[in-house]
Design goal:
The protein has seven helices and no strands. By secondary structure, it is mainly α. It has a single domain, classed as Orthogonal Bundle (Cytochrome Bc1 Complex, Chain D, domain 2). 17% of the residues are buried. Bound molecules: heme C (HEC). Keywords: Heme, Iron, Metal-binding.
Length: 121
Amino acid sequence: MKRVVFFALTVLLFSCKKESEDNFGQPKSEAIEKVSGQELFEGKGNCIACHQAEQKIIGPSMAEISKIYKDKNASIVSFLKEESQPIVDQSQYEVMKTNFAITKKMSDEELKALEDYIFAH
Ligand code: HEC
């Protein structure tokens, strides 16, 4: 529980900071017009409802997804377009599938931003 609160606070902190300080140490945020993976993950995509950074809740943690995708050199973008099969947890795939309605409407740039965000964990 403590972790969840801490996580929520961190997210809050970050979202406030972004308004006022653009370059705070993250080389990737140089391109200001670039879509933010974090914003998509927590906002429009609502991925945060089922995926946390380190802890499995409904879906696997971002850390777990990131590790498996990196190990297998797989593409999260393709998965979110429903062009590739699940490799993390086939048994729960039906639950994840409901999100393709949202992710299929996203641009390649947005999907790449989500992938980068997950890979940062
Ligand atoms: C309703 C809960 C829920 C939401 C919301 C959700 N997911 Fe998932 N996700 C899951 C579950 C459950 C799994 C495990 C099944 C699986 O691996 O396909 C999963 C798996 C994944 C995987 C691993 C797929 C694989 O290869 O097995 C990725 C990547 C992923 N989600 C990304 C996202 C992104 C990005 C969003 C937001 C657009 C999102 N998820 C929103 C429940 C959710």
